[in-house]
Amino acid sequence: MACSARILGTVWCFFISISVNSVPRWRGLVYGLPPPCESQIYCFGDLLKQVQLTKLFSDDKHFVDMALRESPELVLKKFQQLVNVTPGGILSKEQLQQFVNSSFSDPGQEFEQWEPQDWTSSPRVLAKISDQKLQAWASDLNAKWKSLGRKIYVPHPLMVPGGRFIEYYYWDSYWVIEGLLISEMTTTAKGMIKNFLYLVERYGHIPNGGRVYYLRRSQPPFLTLMMDAYLAHTNDTEFLRENIHLLEMEYEFWQRNRSVSITVGDRNHSLNYYNVQIGEPRPESYSKDWELATDLNEDARQELWAELKSAAESGWDFSSRWFLSSPHPISATLKDTKASAVVPVDLNAFLCKTEHLLASFYRILGNTTKAAQFQANLEHRLEAVQAVFWNEAAGVWMDFNLLKKQLNPAFYPTNLAPLWTDCFSDQAAAEKAVRYLERSSALSYKNGLPTSLARTGEQWDLPNAWPPLQHMVIAGLAKSSSPGAKETAFILAQNWIRTNFALYKKYQAMFEKYSVDGDGNPGTGGEYQVQEGFGWTNGVVLQLLDIYGDRLTSGSPSTPSWAWIVVACIFALLLK
Q1: How far apart are alpha carbons 418 and 390 in whole angstroms?
Q2: 178 annotated active-site
C-alpha cells in the first residue's frame, strides 16, 4: 500500500516519510509559498524536476501517476546515490529511463476495474426518448458506466472521467453523479458522495482530483449540490442528517480560505475567488510550467506558478478569462494568467446555491438556528451578486477584476450561471439574459455555446464548447417562466445533442469537449489531446434527454433560422 501513496486515500505515508536527509528541503519556502504537497517525489524535488524536464514521457501527467515499486524513502535514497556519482548531478535520459522503469510501474496498474452492481440495462429515461436513434444512443451511454468504474484508495468504488483522467475529479463528478442518478444507479452515486465526504473529514476540503499532487487545491464546490441531486432521487434524509456537518465544513473552507471583500458605494460585500498560494510548477504539467517561466526571476516564477494553480482550481485551465488583459487579448498569453485577480460569477453562484440548500436542509432536519444562519448568508450573497456582478446595460452578470476594479465585459457562458442556481431576484433576468445572448455572436455557432469569443489556443476558449457550461445555461433558461427563455433552452439542447450524437456516430466515442467550428469536431487546444470517455459529457447528455427526450431529434443538421425568429418575435410581444 505504501508504494502507491500518491493516491489521496493513502497519502499519509508521505507525511511520515519526508525526513530523507539526502534530499534538500524545498527552496520555494524561501519565497513564502509551500509546495503542492509534502511528497519529494510527486510534488517537488530533484527527482521530479529531472524526470519532467528530460521529458521521458510526452505527457507530464504520466510520470506523476506512476506507482512506486518500493517505499518512497528507498526510491529517493537510490536516486540520490545515482546523483552523487554522476558528474554535475544531472542524469542522462537513458539513466533516468532505467531508474524510472525499475522504481515505478505504469499508471493505473494499482487500480481495479470495477463494474457497478446497481447498473440496469433499461433505466426509465430510455422510455422518455421518442427518437429511436437517440434512444439507442442513450442505451450505449448508459452501458458506458460499466467501463468507467474503478476501485481506488478511497472507501467506495467510483466513476472516473476517462482517457488520461483515471482518477476522480471533483467538479466532473457532479455531472457524473447526475447521470448515474438518471441511470437509476443510486448506490454508486451515494458511494461517490461518501468518498467526497470522507475527503472533507480528512483534509477539510475536497482536493482537485484523486492524486497527492492535487492535495492543496480544490475545484468548484459542488458537494452540497451532489447531496441535493441524490436526495431528489432517494429522499434519504438520514444520510443527510449524518453528514450535513461535513457539507458545512466544506462551505467553511471556501469562506475561510477563498474569500475577498469588495466595497460598492458604502457597502462591503464578501465574495469568493480562486486563490491557491502554492509554489513550484504543477507536477502534472511540470515541463510546460517551467518553460513558461524561463525568463522570469524567482519571485515572478513562483507567483506565476501559483496563479496557474489558481486557474486550475477553477476547472478552467486555461482561458483568456484569467488573463489580465481580458476581455479580448491580442497579445496576451498563458504567462498573463492572473486568476486570483478575478472574482468569478459562477463560483459565487455555486456558493449561493450551497447557502440556499444548507438553509433548506437544516429546516428539513429541524435545526432552525442553523437554517436562519444560512438564510442570512444567502441574503447577503444575493445582495453582493447583484451589487458587484450585475451589468444592467448588458442584462447579465460579469466577473469582477480586483486589479482593474471593473467588470470583465467578455462573453462567457458562466455570465448566466446565477440563472441556474437561482441566485437573483429580478424576475426578468432570464429574458434579459436571452437578449444578451442574441446581441453576442454566441448563438451563431450551431454546435454549441462557445466557452469564450477569444481564440487563444487555450482549451477553455473559442472554438471549444464544454458540456457543463451547456448544461448550466440550458437548465438556467429552462426553469424560467419566460416562453422565449424556455424555447432558447430547447434550441441549445437540440444543438448540443445533435453535435454529440453526430460525432458519436462518426467516432463511436464521447469527448470531454467539442469544437463549435464547421460541422463539428472533437475539441482542440490546451495542454493535451482531447480525451475520450467521458463522464461529464455522458451525464449532461442523459440529463438533456431526461428533460427533452420527447422533443429532441437526431437528424436536425443545424438550428433553423426560423427558430431564432420565433424567439425574437416572442420577446417583441413581451416587450410591448
Answers
A1: 10
A2: no
